[in-house]
Specification:
It contains 16 helices and 20 strands. Helix 3 packs across helix 5, helix 7 runs parallel beside helix 8 and helix 11 packs parallel to helix 13. A 6-stranded parallel beta sheet has the order 7-8-6-9-10-11, sandwiched between helices. The protein is globular, with a radius of gyration of 24 Å. The structure holds adenosine-5'-triphosphate (ATP) and magnesium ion.
Length: 470
């Protein structure tokens, strides 16, 4: 991208509607809310979240911050650099984000992604694909909440041609203000699934909340909706009410973007699809029908954004999944190989089924036993027991040989498994590792998954530490 600074000091002050304490400042090359990852030249924004960022202003300047955005009440310390004062630092960050969006050139295209699963993976696919055809901006991580979205906007260079934003929610009403800042030309809903059920009366209520994404669409914008999802009609109605053009994707015969060929394998998926009347063949390196479906949404979005789809789509053939969303590592045990599929980042019933299905595609010729290591799916409300026992079908369909499970919810699944499939159950993940390690044999393929709070990540990490990479 161009060598212009992200923000000149004056432009930033104006965008933040702030009161600078020094007349001039050096150009701002980035924005940071965390001094542990701050880069020299960044503007440090002192947000109040779990901790108060104002306690770290000194650290920020020591690390090379170009300026700091602080609230009126902050008491300047010796060694502080240029300060920009505002009544509320989060509101100011939002204002900077809106200014970043407003200054994009008219031909720029902005894409927003929401859904119960697959937001980050879809955002990463779009970023990889669009980077091949123009200056592209997206967050490195999930960054999908009340500070992540404005921060990602504020970090967007003026010369951006394609901006991609993940928008998340835990409650109704959360998406509306975020998408109002992003003002996308294209809004994608990957899927609607029973997650966060503790906060919602029904899955329909979740679909309604996801549909808020269409409220922020630019006039003439495009809504890209999953035709295979139960809540398609509900989402379509909401999108139409906003005047959006609807593009549906999926395997349903009525889908606009529907694969003519879809070959799933443990090594990824080969897809053939008609886009704008042209047949396109491409590969997706991350295996699983759920990822393939996200890739159809990506293809639809590339077309809607006016990108050269033939140039952009081949990026998906080499793109690895984000950490903990299917990351594969070959490990060595007693001179033989073990394949670890690390899905520990998070879990809900839909992504759990998807991950088990992928486990079932690993060829027996390459690896022998299929082992699922499962932690609790959280936030499922009153139906949590049913959602766990119902996984038995997916466990069996995948040809899973052994299940190691932990947590009170997974105890329900463990109890209904055939006895020969019961590896071990422990109350928490830390106790499970010894039981798992003791059972491992060369040729095993191990898929580890659970909600973030079930701490399956450390278990995957322990396995990688214990066994060396092949
Ligand atoms: N369409 C889908 N349906 C079901 N599961 C999916 C789908 N897409 C991705 N997944 C799985 O969901 C998990 C989370 O993926 P990802 O991080 O992309 O989702 P996210 O929506 O960004 O999650 P978060 O809300 O935590 O930010 C991964 O295990 C991934 O393989
Ligand atoms: Mg995410």
């Amino acid at each position: 991208m161009s060598s212009a600074p992200l923000w000149t000091f004056d432009d930033l002050v104006r965008a933040a509607n702030g009161r600078p304490e020094s007349a001039t400042g050096t150009p701002i090359t980035g924005l940071s809310i965390d001094t542990r990852t701050l880069e020299p030249g960044d503007l440090f924004v002192a947000l109040k979240d779990q901790r108060d960022g104002h306690d770290f202003v000194g650290k920020a300047f020591a690390a090379g911050a170009s300026a700091a955005l602080v609230s009126e009440g902050y008491r300047a310390q010796p060694g502080d650099g240029p300060l920009i004062r505002v009544p509320d630092t989060l509101h100011a960050l939002e204002a900077i984000g809106r200014a970043a969006r407003a200054r994009l050139r008219p031909e720029a295209r902005v894409i927003a992604v929401t859904g119960s699963a697959g937001k980050t993976g879809t955002k990463d696919m779009l970023r990889a694909a669009l980077s091949r055809v123009g200056p592209t901006h997206a967050a490195d991580k999930s960054f999908n909440n009340h500070w992540g979205v404005p921060l990602t906007l504020a970090r967007m260079p003026a010369a951006t041609r394609f901006g991609i934003f993940e928008i998340g929610m835990n409650h109704a009403g959360e998406i509306t203000p975020l998408v109002g800042m992003v003002r996308p030309h294209i809004a994608i809903v990957t899927t609607v699934e029973p997650v966060h059920l503790a906060q919602f009366p029904s899955v329909e209520a979740i679909a309604e909340a996801k549909a808020e994404i269409f409220t922020g669409l630019e006039p003439g914008g495009t809504a890209i909706i999953n035709r295979d999802n139960t809540h398609f009609e509900l989402l379509r109605k909401h999108a139409e009410a906003q005047g959006a053009r609807i593009v549906s994707f999926g395997q349903d015969a009525r889908a606009d973007v529907r694969p003519k060929v879809l070959e799933l394998s443990s090594e990824g998926t080969a897809i053939e699809v008609d886009i704008g009347g042209r047949p396109l063949r491409f590969r997706v390196a991350v295996p699983g029908i759920h990822i393939a479906r996200n890739a159809l949404a990506v293809a639809a979005a590339l077309d809607a954004a006016g990108a050269d789809v033939e140039e952009a789509l081949p990026a998906l053939a080499t793109l690895a999944p984000p950490p903990g969303r299917g990351t594969r590592t070959e490990l060595v045990l007693d001179g033989g190989k073990i394949l670890l599929i690390d899905e520990s980042y998070n879990a809900n019933p839909a992504s759990m089924r998807a991950a088990l299905a992928v486990l079932g595609t690993v060829p027996r010729a390459a690896f022998g036993r299929r082992i699922a290591v499962l932690g609790d799916m959280l936030e499922l409300g009153v139906q949590e027991k049913t959602h766990h026992t119902a996984l038995k079908e997916a466990v069996d369909a995948a040809g899973t040989d052994l299940v190691f499970a932990c947590g009170p919810n997974m105890a329900h699944l463990f109890a209904v498994l055939a006895p020969e499939k019961q590896g071990a159950w422990t109350p928490a993940s830390d106790a499970l590792s010894e039981r798992l390690f003791a059972a491992l044999a060369p040729g095993d393929v191990i898929m580890i998954k659970g909600s973030n709070g079930s701490r399956m990540g450390p278990l995957a990490e322990a396995l990688r530490k214990k066994l060396s990479s092949a």
